[in-house]
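hey so u asked for the seq, here:
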Amino acid sequence: MTQPLLDVRGIAKFYGARIGCADVSFDLWPGEVMGIVGESGSGKSTLLNCIAGHLEPDAGEVFFDTRVDGMKDTLLMSEPERRILSRTDWAFVHQNARDGLRMIVSAGGNVGERLMAVGARHYGDIRARAIDWLGRVEISESRIDDRPTAFSGGMQQRLQIARNLVTGPRLVFMDEPTGGLDVSVQARLLDLLRSLVREMGLSAIIVTHDLAVVRLLADRLMVMKDGRVVEAGLTDQVLDDPQHAYTQLLVSSVLQV
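ran it, structure tokens below
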């Protein structure tokens, strides 16, 4: 393993005088999950959206190990190049599943659309793969023609995951993927995510305020406060022996609940 899958250098985003994120750098290796934690307003979602190309940063570089050209700065890619990347090697799981689904299209159609976006055309093959992926995220084949509006929040989130992973991406961005769900639904979804990440050898960046989520999913952890990374390291190391006062506060607040 000679180079990382993703190399983020000096990402910064400002909203006037307010810092969105400032001078954030890290690398991500194939098969690794990076967790980014912090309170609301810490800059973690701003950072994720800058890396994923949803926000234009004011400074920095995001190098990705493309299949054909090796390491390329995705921020300098053309719009068509970025679109292809977002349909193939990258995927984005939103906190609100409705932001990542087409609510007027059937469950099978949501999964099939992503396949068609990368060139699949045989209806029977597309439907078979959609059925397979619905099964993998614990949605019954009998619901394939139902629209997401008929699904619970947890089912919508699982459908969004199926839609994202059906094309076999190498990097998945997750923005509070368990946010807003009941605790029992969260636990089921986390187990599903953990098994899929390991089974597919996915690299992932997961943003959350929930330390239990990163404890379960993340290999490494970055803690953000006021747009800056205040602590980083192996997840267990950071959570079991936090060095920065802010991280200590985060961990102790969880322990006191």
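The chain has nine helices and ten strands. Strands lie at 6-15, 18-28, 33-37, 59-66, 70-73, 90-93, 171-175, 203-208, 220-225, 228-234.
lmk if thats what u needed
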